[in-house]
Design goal:
The complex is a heterodimer of chains A (136) and B (181). The longest helix of chain A has 22 residues. In chain A, 29% of the residues lie in helices and 37% in strands. Chain A contains 3 helices and 6 strands. Chain B has an 8-stranded antiparallel barrel with strand order 1-2-3-5-6-7-8-9. Classes of the chains: A alpha/beta (136), B mainly beta (181). Chains A and B meet through strand 4 and strand 5 of A and strand 1, strand 2, strand 3 and helix 2 of B.
Protein backbone atom coordinates (compact mmCIF):
# COMPACT_ATOMS: atom_id res chain seq x y z
CA UNK A 1 0.00 0.00 0.00
CA UNK A 2 2.79 2.35 0.96
CA UNK A 3 4.61 1.56 -2.28
CA UNK A 4 1.59 2.58 -4.40
CA UNK A 5 1.28 5.78 -2.40
CA UNK A 6 4.87 6.73 -3.15
CA UNK A 7 4.52 5.90 -6.83
CA UNK A 8 1.43 8.10 -7.10
CA UNK A 9 3.14 10.98 -5.32
CA UNK A 10 6.21 10.76 -7.54
CA UNK A 11 4.03 10.56 -10.66
CA UNK A 12 2.15 13.67 -9.53
CA UNK A 13 5.35 15.59 -8.83
CA UNK A 14 6.69 14.68 -12.27
CA UNK A 15 3.42 15.73 -13.89
CA UNK A 16 3.50 19.06 -12.06
CA UNK A 17 7.11 19.61 -13.04
CA UNK A 18 6.38 18.87 -16.71
CA UNK A 19 3.33 21.11 -16.59
CA UNK A 20 5.34 23.93 -15.04
CA UNK A 21 8.08 23.60 -17.64
CA UNK A 22 5.55 23.57 -20.48
CA UNK A 23 3.72 26.58 -19.14
CA UNK A 24 6.97 28.50 -18.90
CA UNK A 25 8.56 27.22 -22.05
CA UNK A 26 10.64 29.78 -23.95
CA UNK A 27 9.49 31.40 -27.16
CA UNK A 28 10.60 29.78 -30.40
CA UNK A 29 14.19 30.67 -31.09
CA UNK A 30 14.66 31.16 -34.79
CA UNK A 31 18.37 31.75 -34.33
CA UNK A 32 18.77 28.00 -34.04
CA UNK A 33 15.94 26.86 -36.31
CA UNK A 34 16.37 26.25 -40.02
CA UNK A 35 14.39 28.16 -42.60
CA UNK A 36 12.14 26.30 -45.01
CA UNK A 37 12.51 28.85 -47.80
CA UNK A 38 15.03 31.55 -48.74
CA UNK A 39 14.06 34.34 -51.08
CA UNK A 40 14.36 38.06 -51.74
CA UNK A 41 11.92 40.56 -50.25
CA UNK A 42 10.91 41.53 -53.79
CA UNK A 43 10.12 37.95 -54.74
CA UNK A 44 8.13 37.47 -51.56
CA UNK A 45 6.04 40.53 -52.35
CA UNK A 46 5.59 39.40 -55.95
CA UNK A 47 4.13 36.07 -54.87
CA UNK A 48 1.81 37.67 -52.29
CA UNK A 49 0.71 40.37 -54.70
CA UNK A 50 -0.09 37.88 -57.46
CA UNK A 51 -2.05 35.37 -55.37
CA UNK A 52 -2.37 35.89 -51.63
CA UNK A 53 -3.98 32.52 -50.95
CA UNK A 54 -1.25 30.68 -52.79
CA UNK A 55 1.40 32.74 -50.99
CA UNK A 56 -0.19 31.84 -47.67
CA UNK A 57 0.01 28.12 -48.40
CA UNK A 58 3.66 28.61 -49.29
CA UNK A 59 4.81 30.93 -46.52
CA UNK A 60 2.19 31.53 -43.79
CA UNK A 61 3.32 30.29 -40.36
CA UNK A 62 6.56 29.00 -41.87
CA UNK A 63 10.13 29.97 -41.01
CA UNK A 64 11.51 31.86 -43.99
CA UNK A 65 14.72 33.72 -44.79
CA UNK A 66 14.34 37.02 -46.61
CA UNK A 67 17.05 39.27 -48.03
CA UNK A 68 16.55 42.89 -48.92
CA UNK A 69 17.61 46.49 -48.38
CA UNK A 70 16.81 48.20 -45.10
CA UNK A 71 14.47 51.16 -45.51
CA UNK A 72 13.93 51.98 -41.85
CA UNK A 73 14.48 50.69 -38.34
CA UNK A 74 11.73 51.72 -35.96
CA UNK A 75 10.43 51.00 -32.53
CA UNK A 76 6.70 50.51 -31.96
CA UNK A 77 5.43 49.86 -28.42
CA UNK A 78 8.75 48.32 -27.40
CA UNK A 79 9.03 46.19 -30.55
CA UNK A 80 11.91 46.76 -32.93
CA UNK A 81 10.80 46.60 -36.56
CA UNK A 82 13.20 46.31 -39.48
CA UNK A 83 11.55 47.50 -42.69
CA UNK A 84 12.81 46.04 -45.97
CA UNK A 85 12.18 47.38 -49.47
CA UNK A 86 10.44 44.95 -51.78
CA UNK A 87 10.10 46.81 -55.06
CA UNK A 88 6.72 48.37 -54.30
CA UNK A 89 5.95 52.05 -53.68
CA UNK A 90 3.18 51.25 -51.27
CA UNK A 91 4.33 48.11 -49.49
CA UNK A 92 7.31 46.84 -47.55
CA UNK A 93 8.37 43.68 -45.75
CA UNK A 94 8.26 44.45 -42.03
CA UNK A 95 10.34 42.21 -39.78
CA UNK A 96 9.46 42.39 -36.11
CA UNK A 97 12.64 41.42 -34.36
CA UNK A 98 13.15 38.93 -31.53
CA UNK A 99 14.07 41.23 -28.64
CA UNK A 100 16.54 38.66 -27.29
CA UNK A 101 18.88 39.32 -30.23
CA UNK A 102 18.49 43.08 -30.52
CA UNK A 103 22.20 43.83 -30.06
CA UNK A 104 22.90 42.16 -33.41
CA UNK A 105 21.21 45.18 -35.00
CA UNK A 106 23.45 47.90 -33.54
CA UNK A 107 25.49 48.31 -36.74
CA UNK A 108 22.58 48.03 -39.14
CA UNK A 109 21.46 51.20 -40.88
CA UNK A 110 19.12 52.10 -43.76
CA UNK A 111 20.50 51.28 -47.20
CA UNK A 112 22.26 48.13 -46.07
CA UNK A 113 21.43 44.74 -47.52
CA UNK A 114 20.49 42.15 -44.88
CA UNK A 115 19.19 38.61 -44.53
CA UNK A 116 16.49 38.05 -41.94
CA UNK A 117 15.05 34.75 -40.70
CA UNK A 118 11.56 34.87 -39.27
CA UNK A 119 8.03 33.47 -39.15
CA UNK A 120 5.80 34.75 -41.93
CA UNK A 121 2.50 36.07 -40.60
CA UNK A 122 0.96 37.05 -43.91
CA UNK A 123 0.16 40.27 -45.76
CA UNK A 124 -2.02 43.26 -44.99
CA UNK A 125 -0.60 46.27 -46.86
CA UNK A 126 2.88 45.20 -45.79
CA UNK A 127 4.12 41.64 -45.47
CA UNK A 128 4.81 40.93 -41.82
CA UNK A 129 7.46 38.58 -40.47
CA UNK A 130 7.67 37.94 -36.73
CA UNK A 131 10.19 36.62 -34.20
CA UNK A 132 12.90 37.67 -36.64
CA UNK A 133 16.64 37.36 -36.24
CA UNK A 134 19.42 38.92 -38.30
CA UNK A 135 21.35 36.27 -40.18
CA UNK A 136 23.80 38.49 -42.06
CA UNK B 1 1.31 74.11 -73.69
CA UNK B 2 -2.21 74.83 -72.46
CA UNK B 3 -2.98 71.08 -72.39
CA UNK B 4 -0.01 70.37 -70.15
CA UNK B 5 -1.07 73.15 -67.84
CA UNK B 6 -4.62 71.80 -67.61
CA UNK B 7 -3.42 68.26 -66.90
CA UNK B 8 -0.94 69.45 -64.30
CA UNK B 9 -3.55 71.59 -62.61
CA UNK B 10 -6.04 68.70 -62.54
CA UNK B 11 -3.50 66.35 -61.02
CA UNK B 12 -2.60 68.91 -58.38
CA UNK B 13 -6.26 69.60 -57.65
CA UNK B 14 -6.99 65.88 -57.34
CA UNK B 15 -4.10 65.25 -54.99
CA UNK B 16 -5.15 68.18 -52.84
CA UNK B 17 -8.52 66.48 -52.59
CA UNK B 18 -6.99 63.11 -51.66
CA UNK B 19 -8.47 62.37 -48.30
CA UNK B 20 -6.90 59.06 -47.44
CA UNK B 21 -5.15 58.47 -44.16
CA UNK B 22 -3.27 55.31 -43.33
CA UNK B 23 -1.14 53.47 -40.82
CA UNK B 24 0.83 50.25 -41.03
CA UNK B 25 1.91 50.06 -37.42
CA UNK B 26 -1.31 50.34 -35.49
CA UNK B 27 -1.30 48.75 -32.03
CA UNK B 28 -3.95 46.26 -30.96
CA UNK B 29 -3.92 44.95 -27.41
CA UNK B 30 -6.29 42.34 -26.19
CA UNK B 31 -6.90 41.42 -22.61
CA UNK B 32 -8.71 38.50 -21.03
CA UNK B 33 -9.48 38.79 -17.35
CA UNK B 34 -10.59 35.65 -15.55
CA UNK B 35 -10.45 34.28 -11.98
CA UNK B 36 -7.39 32.14 -12.58
CA UNK B 37 -5.42 34.08 -15.14
CA UNK B 38 -4.84 37.33 -16.99
CA UNK B 39 -3.93 36.99 -20.61
CA UNK B 40 -2.58 39.78 -22.76
CA UNK B 41 -1.56 39.86 -26.40
CA UNK B 42 -0.06 42.78 -28.33
CA UNK B 43 0.06 43.32 -32.07
CA UNK B 44 2.03 46.29 -33.43
CA UNK B 45 1.63 45.78 -37.16
CA UNK B 46 -2.04 46.59 -37.60
CA UNK B 47 -2.97 48.19 -40.89
CA UNK B 48 -5.69 50.77 -41.42
CA UNK B 49 -6.99 53.18 -44.02
CA UNK B 50 -9.55 55.96 -43.55
CA UNK B 51 -11.01 57.62 -46.62
CA UNK B 52 -12.53 60.93 -45.63
CA UNK B 53 -14.04 61.34 -49.10
CA UNK B 54 -16.44 58.48 -48.33
CA UNK B 55 -16.14 58.09 -44.55
CA UNK B 56 -15.01 54.50 -44.98
CA UNK B 57 -12.58 52.96 -42.55
CA UNK B 58 -10.77 49.65 -42.80
CA UNK B 59 -8.64 48.01 -40.15
CA UNK B 60 -6.84 44.67 -40.23
CA UNK B 61 -4.45 42.61 -38.09
CA UNK B 62 -2.49 39.44 -38.73
CA UNK B 63 -3.27 36.91 -36.00
CA UNK B 64 0.20 35.39 -36.02
CA UNK B 65 1.66 38.79 -35.19
CA UNK B 66 0.18 38.91 -31.68
CA UNK B 67 2.85 38.60 -29.02
CA UNK B 68 2.25 37.03 -25.64
CA UNK B 69 4.48 36.79 -22.61
CA UNK B 70 4.01 33.04 -22.45
CA UNK B 71 5.04 31.06 -25.53
CA UNK B 72 2.49 28.36 -24.73
CA UNK B 73 -0.33 30.92 -24.73
CA UNK B 74 0.84 32.28 -28.07
CA UNK B 75 0.85 28.76 -29.48
CA UNK B 76 -2.62 27.92 -28.14
CA UNK B 77 -3.99 31.26 -29.31
CA UNK B 78 -2.83 30.59 -32.86
CA UNK B 79 -3.37 26.86 -33.17
CA UNK B 80 -6.38 26.09 -30.98
CA UNK B 81 -8.46 29.24 -30.60
CA UNK B 82 -7.92 31.48 -33.60
CA UNK B 83 -6.76 28.76 -36.03
CA UNK B 84 -4.54 31.36 -37.65
CA UNK B 85 -3.41 29.13 -40.52
CA UNK B 86 -7.04 28.92 -41.64
CA UNK B 87 -7.93 32.49 -40.71
CA UNK B 88 -4.73 34.57 -40.83
CA UNK B 89 -6.45 37.96 -40.34
CA UNK B 90 -9.05 39.78 -38.33
CA UNK B 91 -10.61 42.52 -40.45
CA UNK B 92 -12.94 45.44 -39.81
CA UNK B 93 -14.73 47.25 -42.66
CA UNK B 94 -16.98 50.11 -41.71
CA UNK B 95 -17.83 53.77 -41.80
CA UNK B 96 -17.51 56.85 -39.67
CA UNK B 97 -21.00 57.97 -38.77
CA UNK B 98 -21.85 61.51 -39.91
CA UNK B 99 -18.44 61.72 -41.53
CA UNK B 100 -19.35 64.83 -43.51
CA UNK B 101 -19.34 66.76 -40.25
CA UNK B 102 -15.96 65.30 -39.26
CA UNK B 103 -12.76 67.05 -40.25
CA UNK B 104 -9.17 65.91 -39.93
CA UNK B 105 -7.89 69.22 -41.25
CA UNK B 106 -7.95 71.18 -38.03
CA UNK B 107 -5.97 70.58 -34.88
CA UNK B 108 -8.23 69.36 -32.13
CA UNK B 109 -9.71 66.52 -30.08
CA UNK B 110 -13.07 64.89 -30.65
CA UNK B 111 -14.88 61.57 -30.64
CA UNK B 112 -16.31 59.80 -33.66
CA UNK B 113 -18.49 56.71 -33.90
CA UNK B 114 -17.48 53.94 -36.23
CA UNK B 115 -19.72 51.06 -37.22
CA UNK B 116 -19.37 48.19 -39.61
CA UNK B 117 -18.54 44.55 -40.06
CA UNK B 118 -15.91 42.80 -37.98
CA UNK B 119 -14.61 39.45 -39.20
CA UNK B 120 -12.75 37.29 -36.68
CA UNK B 121 -12.07 33.57 -37.05
CA UNK B 122 -14.03 33.65 -40.31
CA UNK B 123 -17.22 34.90 -38.61
CA UNK B 124 -18.76 38.30 -39.47
CA UNK B 125 -20.55 40.48 -36.97
CA UNK B 126 -21.67 44.10 -36.97
CA UNK B 127 -20.15 46.27 -34.31
CA UNK B 128 -20.18 49.93 -33.32
CA UNK B 129 -17.58 51.69 -31.22
CA UNK B 130 -16.62 55.22 -30.21
CA UNK B 131 -13.14 56.32 -31.25
CA UNK B 132 -11.25 59.24 -29.69
CA UNK B 133 -9.40 61.30 -32.26
CA UNK B 134 -6.58 63.77 -31.70
CA UNK B 135 -5.46 65.81 -34.71
CA UNK B 136 -2.12 67.56 -34.35
CA UNK B 137 0.91 68.58 -36.40
CA UNK B 138 2.14 64.98 -36.49
CA UNK B 139 -1.03 63.46 -37.87
CA UNK B 140 -4.32 61.90 -36.85
CA UNK B 141 -4.20 59.75 -33.71
CA UNK B 142 -6.98 57.34 -32.81
CA UNK B 143 -7.72 55.50 -29.60
CA UNK B 144 -10.59 53.13 -28.94
CA UNK B 145 -11.59 50.50 -26.41
CA UNK B 146 -14.36 47.97 -26.84
CA UNK B 147 -15.17 44.36 -26.04
CA UNK B 148 -15.81 41.33 -28.18
CA UNK B 149 -17.17 37.94 -27.17
CA UNK B 150 -15.33 34.78 -28.20
CA UNK B 151 -18.69 33.06 -28.54
CA UNK B 152 -19.77 35.59 -31.19
CA UNK B 153 -16.94 34.48 -33.44
CA UNK B 154 -17.17 30.75 -32.96
CA UNK B 155 -14.06 30.72 -30.78
CA UNK B 156 -14.52 27.79 -28.46
CA UNK B 157 -13.21 27.86 -24.94
CA UNK B 158 -13.09 24.34 -23.48
CA UNK B 159 -14.92 24.08 -20.16
CA UNK B 160 -11.67 22.84 -18.62
CA UNK B 161 -10.10 26.28 -19.03
CA UNK B 162 -13.17 28.50 -18.70
CA UNK B 163 -11.74 29.98 -15.51
CA UNK B 164 -8.48 30.78 -17.26
CA UNK B 165 -9.88 32.40 -20.38
CA UNK B 166 -12.69 34.90 -20.33
CA UNK B 167 -15.36 34.83 -23.04
CA UNK B 168 -15.33 38.62 -23.00
CA UNK B 169 -12.16 40.04 -24.49
CA UNK B 170 -11.18 43.70 -23.95
CA UNK B 171 -9.61 45.33 -26.99
CA UNK B 172 -7.58 48.55 -26.98
CA UNK B 173 -6.61 49.93 -30.35
CA UNK B 174 -4.29 52.87 -31.01
CA UNK B 175 -3.19 54.15 -34.39
CA UNK B 176 -1.25 57.12 -35.75
CA UNK B 177 -2.47 57.95 -39.24
CA UNK B 178 -0.53 59.82 -41.90
CA UNK B 179 -2.09 61.38 -44.96
CA UNK B 180 -1.54 59.31 -48.08
CA UNK B 181 0.14 61.43 -50.76
Amino acid sequence: MKKIFYIVVIALVIAMFVGYKLYNKPHANLQTQKAEVTLSASKLFEVFDADEEKANTLYLNKVIEVNGDVVEIRNVEGNTQLVLACGSDLANVVCEMDQRYIDKLTNISPGQSVTIRGMCSGKLMDIVINQSVLIK
Amino acid sequence: MKKIFVVLFSVLALSAYSQKYFTKSGIVKFHSDSPMEKIEGVNSTASSVIDMASGKMEFAVLINAFKFEKALMQEHFNENYMESTKFPKAVFKGEIQNFSSVSFDKVGKFTITVSGEMTIHGVKKNITAPVDIVVDAKGVHSNTKFNVLCSDYNIKIPSLVKDNISNEINLTIKADYQKLN
